[in-house]
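Lab manual, section 2.4: Encoding a predicted structure.

Procedure: take the sequence of the chain (371 residues), apply the prediction step described in section 2.3, and record the output as structure tokens. A sample record is shown.
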Amino acid sequence: MEFKELINNYKWEDIKASVYSKTTRDVELALSKSKCSIEDFMALISPAAQPYLEQMAVLSRKYTQQRFGKTIQFYVPLYLTNSCINHCVYCGFNHSNDIQRIILTDEQILREVEAIKKIGDFRHLLLVTGENPRDAGADYIAHAIELVKPYFSSISIEVQPLKENEYRQLTDAGMNAVYCYQETYNKERYKIYHPKGMKSKYDWRIDGYERMGKAGVHKIGLGVLIGLEDWRTDTTMMALHLRYLQKTYWQTKYSLSFPRMRPYMGNGFQPNVIMSDKEFAQLVFAFRIFDHDIEIAMSTREESRLRDCMTTLGITSLSAGSKTDPGGYAVYKNELEQFEINDGRTPEEVLSAVKKQGYEVIWKDWDLSLQ
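Recorded output:
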């Protein structure tokens, strides 16, 4: 049974009720275990766990240092295009938005690479696109990977869900990882946020992780967009999804991210749910206690103070010096961004902040660094 079928056994309101019914006793039991269940995870993200944040932080730091040492991986995104057929209500790339649409040429991609190399010793690159399968589909992405491959030791992508053979094509071209965010697991309300375009197809998107696993993708990144639905329920669904994928595609490695909504150019959609910084930290701690080996990324959506605090408490990967628009490093300069970043420090400034906490920066992919 694939996850898109398995998830039908779980009712959103039932999971939500279960999370919010957890008691301090449930939290204490979860914290006493070396291996947590889904029920334990729900206790750790519940309101009942808030008085235990300091204890959770200690455990999160301990498990992270045991698995990853006192290190943080740096990566940088390169947006290839803001062209998109989707109508996501929370995104600056929404097809209805009246903005200039750009698909970078070979020359422009290489100009971006040159600019990135000048701002930091990045060797882990994340290629990002809107969803335009006709003009910026698998062939375009594969060509872009081959184009930038000589300049980076590891290349990840964050693009539209692809077919199984297309993931194999990109792996053959030099891709190391795929990041794809379900945004929300609330199937009944999913189409409210994704009314038109391929992204409106809930099952196609959630089934994408199966296609990645079957294609033998080395690393898969999961995530939900915080601000759409109740974050505790959504991340419980994501924890269920993670456990399913780890059991089914056990040779693949996994990474998590929980981006919070940021201001963007568009119709002014406002978050339905606001997550506080304390709750963000609680979620990181809970996932680290739930899974000691999982990578957890934190982007420049978050402000510098919080990113600095989380460096030693469970995060394993940070972006730095990010531009969220195609050509933003050298070609167009912040005219077409997907959302506003919250940490505008240079990579050197972020590096200095990490070092002040006694941590070392790894500029390339974890696995390749350890070879």
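Check your result against the sample. The chain has one domain: 3-369.
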